[in-house]
Amino acid sequence: MPRRSFMRRLGGISISRYQLIRDVSAPLDMTTKIKTAILTVFLAYAALAQKSQTPTPSAMPEEAPSLSPIPIESLTPTPASEQTPSASPARSIRISFVPPPLEGRISLGIYDSKGKLLRVLHHEADLNEFKIGADALVTQWDGKNDNGEDLPAGRYHARGYLVGSLRVEDLNQAAASPPENNSNASVKVNLMANPLANDKPTPVELGTGFDNDGSYLKTNDGLRLFTISKSPNLSRVSLIRKGDKSVDVWQTDGTVFHQFRISNVDQMMAFDCGEFELK
């Protein structure tokens, strides 16, 4: 192509062939550099993306507890649970009774066919310590005696007393010990008749006992009825009649004697829960 025609096609711009080659090669070198830079950035980005997709221990999500496999061993009962089974329903006896119409506290015991006290279920219990049934108070017996031993199968009896407002008078320390000739192990008292049982006044043998919590009035067969004092470390307690409705109690810890007078000892009513069979 003639130089003139070539110059005309360039819009009349005066440029030499050397300048054209140099100016054209310069953009080509720049394009190559740009492409190389872009390729380098792309490769770096791809490597970074691949690294971010590889989970690290700290980034791994925790498995939901519901998805965790349950070991077979955890489904097997432990020896401890096998050694402590729940009480058999057959040994649980439901005892219901209508309390006598007297304000006070309830003592209730389990007796064998010969009348021997085997278990004190309640002593000096408030009415709210029992379950309230449709027409009676309800309690349960697990078939054990006071030592926690299972009793043999057979027929047993439950009965108790509702103790009213007995009055305790503290006569302070006594100057001398109680007169031995008047001291008795028990005193017979005629209790109030229970109108629900349509019976006559019930006679009962009252005695005394003591433990780490103090002294108490009890039936002669051992059913605790009424707390006399909360004196600890007692070594002896004796009972003396002081009329038809009162008794004197002498107690000592081995050093001095203390005297109490209990009045209204006849303010009690007996009740019967009936006989039942333990299997």
Verbal overview:
It contains 3 helices and 15 strands. Among the domains are: 89-163 and 274-278, Immunoglobulin-like (Sandwich), CATH 2.60.40.4070; 167-268, no CATH class. The longest helix is centred in the N-terminal third of the chain and has 37 residues, at 17-53. The strands form 4 sheets. A 4-stranded antiparallel β-sheet has the order 3-2-6-15, with no helix packed on it. It has a 4-stranded antiparallel β-sheet with strand order 7-14-13-12, with no helix packed on it. Strands 8-9-10-11 form a 4-stranded antiparallel β-sheet, with no helix packed on it. It is an alpha+beta fold and 279 residues long. It has helices at 3-9, 17-53, 79-83, and strands at 93-97, 105-111, 117-125, 131-132, 137-141, 154-163, 167-174, 186-190, 203-211, 214-219, 224-229, 236-241, 246-252, 257-263, 268-278. 18% of the residues lie in helices and 37% in strands. The N and C termini lie far apart (129 Å).
Describe, in short, the structure shown.
This protein is an alpha+beta fold and 279 residues long.
